[in-house]
Amino acid sequence: MRRWLGLLVLLPLLAGCFAPGPPHIGVAEDPEEAFRVPLPVPTDTSGGWALVDPRWGIIGQGRVVARIDEDGKVLWRTTLPIRFALTGRPGQAHAVATPVGEVTLVGAADRGRLPRVAKLDILTGRFQSLALPPARPPGNVRLVTVSSTAGGAPQAVAATCLPGASCTLTAWDAVTGQVRWTYRTRGPAVFAAPCDQGGGRNGVAPPRKCDPLAFVADGRLVTLRQGEDRLHARPVKLPRGEVAQVIPTLYRALVMTAPHGPDCRAQAAAYDLTTESPTPVWQRALTWDQPQAAVHQGCRRDPSIPLLMAYRLVLPDAAGALVGDDFDGTFPLRLKPGEYPVADRSEILAYRTDGRYRDPSTARSHTPRKRPKELGPTARELGEGMWYVPGRGRRGEIIAVDVYGEITWRRPTSGPPFFLTGNRLVHAEGSTLVALRAAG
User: Fold this and answer.
1) Is the dihedral of CA 227, 231, 234, 240 positive or negative?
2) Confidence of residue 404 (pLDDT cuts 50, 70, 90)
3) What is the secondary structure of 387-405 as a DSSP string?
């Protein structure tokens, strides 16, 4: 009997010896290179490229655009005319116009004309300059975008604005050059920032809606949706104050006023994009404060800091940033004063300017936190257990992290990396293009 009892005690211990270890998150102990080839496209001053389409392996900067396959082979390499050199941001000249789909470029404008538009064939790299654009209305070009109409034809839209005064929007058929419609505001307009090329960063879908155009002017909310031929304008009851930002989401258009006064008071209002109601779905007053930002006109504010992160809306407030839902305006989480939010996958971390952070979530997760304590707020998770930590200029670092949040290896890089075909992390290393293979 004692012998059988001894076996019963030993069996669980023996089973533990053969139990599977911790889950493998796809990071090898040492980085394995998938390829190392001469750099087909020069990088910008940050070590990146103005055009990165990870789905097709297309990168572009300046006058050079190339497509590479998963082994680093250059499938095609195209030299662009000077007027189409890629140096700008989406919405500007010298930039990629379309966030998804085919590569459409916006170039410089001829004298007295709106900016030129061209296409690059994804399969062959063939460059095609499209029709001569219409004459430019008075003012400076504020924004250029290209979308598809209901019939699938490419439609270019440009907004030219007089300083502090009216704006004229002109839409034309990018293939024929024929003007489709014009729209003029009586007063100044505030435009939503265009989506970045690729529809997001590193192939991850952005939390905001990437319609071609959204702006507020003359007490109206005006939108141009993908696949529509004309603008949709409707009067709305705007919050008091100077409109500073317009942010379209899937079902809402968020309007933020600029902080003003000694208390940095601001307003946030959300409008339903599926109805014609002029009244905001919800509205909130704020004492604007972004602890990580420099003081601008008496308030700590940086318009480049996104308010949509980790699929949540974040509203800066001196009593603590509010984290919640843009749909109904509920904010179940408020950070502590002096903290600012940093996205960590689908969660929000609360950072302080001295680098300390905490997890403000009250819900206990069954998945251990994978962000190492050594990573600062600028670190960006790339996927497959890899992170990118930007440095000064072209310097940066790729870091691999295991499931327990321990760093397994580090590797210097000359610029921001991106995933190609899912499991190759591509980055510049001096005059070389290198891809690290993420273990499956």
Assistant:
1) positive
2) confident
3) EEEE-STT-EEEEEE-TTS
